[in-house]
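Fig. S4 source data, part A: sequence.
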Amino acid sequence: MKTIAINQYGSEDEFTMVDMPTTEPQADEVQVAIHAFSLNPMDIAGRMGALSSPFTDLWAFPLVLGWDFAGVITKMGKAVTGFNIGDAVFGSAAPAHAANNGTYGEFITVNTKE
């Protein structure tokens, strides 16, 4: 999938387009095709390297930032109930999301509680 990622902390000049594997949903997760994401002060702090544990516990470079999203469910884990493929949803990635699973990409995989 196409993402907007950083390879080191710094200014907005660090953003670059990166191809990364799409994450597959686990039993209690859904994969969402992202139609929109937001930029918040937390995103800027992450880009600058100003966040610490627990946010950064699963991070590595290249790093896809972003927490808030809106989109459509494209895949579901086997244990997911109450949702269907094609449902329009919005939510937030886990605070300590993996480096390749931020919202600045074409897809995100999230727990249904998110």
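Fig. S4 source data, part B ends here. The first strand starts at residue 2 and ends at 5.
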